[in-house]
Amino acid sequence: MRQTPQVWLRLGAVFGSSAAMIGVTKEDALATLGWLIDAGADEAILEEPVDRLSRATSPPAQRGIEPPRETSHNLRPSSPNVVQQAAEVSLSTAPGAARALASTCRTLSELKSALEAFDGGELKRGASKTVFGDGSPTAKIMLIGEAPGRDEDAQGIPFVGRAAKLLDQMIAAIGLDRTKVYITNVLPWRPPQNRDPSPEEAASLLPFLQRHIELINPEILILLGAVSARHVLGTSEGILRLRGKWDVYQTTSGDGLRSVPTLPTLHPAYLLRQPAAKRLAWRDLCSVAEKMEQLGLS
Ligand code: URA
Question: Going by CATH, does the domain composed of 128-294 fall within 3.40.470.10?
Answer without folding.
Answer: yes
